[in-house]
Amino acid sequence: MLGKEDQIGMLRLMYTIRQFEEKARQLFRQGLIYGALHPYVGQEAVAVGACAALENDDFVVSTHRGHGHCIAKGADLKRMMAELLGRETGYSKGRGGSMHMFSVEEGLLGGNGIVGGGLPIALGSAFSAQYRQSGQVTLCFFGEGAASNGTFHESMNLASLWKLPVVYICENNLYAATTPVSDSAPIENIADRASAYGCPGLVVDGNDVVSVYEAVQQAVARARAGEGPTLIECKTFRFYPHCMVIPEHRRKAEVEEWRRKDPIVRFEKRLLEEHLMTHEEQEKIKREVENAIEEAVNFAKESRYPGVETVADGVWA
Questions:
Q1: Do the Cβ atoms of 271 and 7 come closer than 8 Å?
Q2: DSSP 118-150
Q3: Angle at the Cα of 38 (from 44 to 209), degrees rounded to 5?
Q4: 303 touches 310 (CB < 8 A)
Q5: Residue 47: which of 27, 67, 30, 75 has the closest Cα?
Q6: What structural domains and CATH numbers belong to the chain?
Q7: How many CB atoms lie within 10 A of CB 122?
Q8: How far apart are CA 24 and CA 71, in angstroms?
Q9: Beta carbons within 10 angstroms of residue 30's beta carbon
């Protein structure tokens, strides 16, 4: 059961993801972030709710839109921001950027610029846990666009066949870059595809952090018990275009409708109505998060770029 402090902690993480992403967008426009940047704004409830169901030593396989996953799993804001700014103190020593955060300490097995690229990687960590009998579970995040890739079907098949401890989280934000899901999938729910592989598939409201948590908690328990994978489809929506270099293509009315379903505002109201927090306490946490983000930015700006003498480090012929 989620206690008061658990829920307040979840709200803090959602604030952190939102403010981190807004700051990253600002830094990108200032020319301080190179490469691609895919904002996670609007999808915070998925990452926070899902990762709240994990233990510290469990694994997360992320995507190209992965900052929220990293923060929800406990990543250090300073090292994340340094990676975005290409500095030596970043998680990938400034060489990976936005899509390639990796941290063994936090169980983060990296983001991936390839659509569906993380699905087979999750098989590896899940098989390792099963082989070592460690009890660890892997959460694998991916978008609805990846659910039409061969890697999705191959991975689901093998995970079910071997009853691997992996939970698949499909973040269905309705658009794969600019392609609406109706143009790529002939069914209403991606979760229905689980039936082809003999495992549970369920749809949850991806803008309700508690619903996401409850669904993933059950799936994680099932995986730990050796019963195999679960496919969870979280219906959600990103507030901004696919990335910082693609203009908005969706209908203005559609974007405005989903913004009225803001997962953070929704959870704030719930905590207020249940008398678990006051408005003043929520504003206080926002200020604390804002300060933490500014500290991370300052840390990144003060960190040095990788030296030219290290250009070949990590490159294997």
A1: yes
A2: HHHHHHHHHHHHHHHT----EEEEEETTGGGSH
A3: 10
A4: no
A5: 67
A6: 4-300 (3.40.50.970)
A7: 25
A8: 14
A9: 8
Per-residue pLDDT of 280-315, as tens digits, reads 999 999 999 999 999 999 999 999 999 988 888 878
Q: With beta carbons less than 8 A apart as the criterion, state whether 264 and 289 touch.
A: no
Residues 6 or more apart whose Cβ sits within 8 Å of residue 317: none
- What is the reported pLDDT for 69? 98
Rg for the chain, CA atoms, rounded: 19
Q: Which two tokens stand for residue 301?
A: 């700006």
**107: left (phi > 0), else alpha (psi -120 to 50), else beta?**
left
**CA distance linking residue 71 with residue 91, whole number of Å:** 13
Global pTM value = 0.96
- The parts of the chain modelled with pLDDT lower than 50 are none
Amino acid residing at 176: A
Distances (CA, A) of 154 to 98, 120, 123: 27, 8, 10
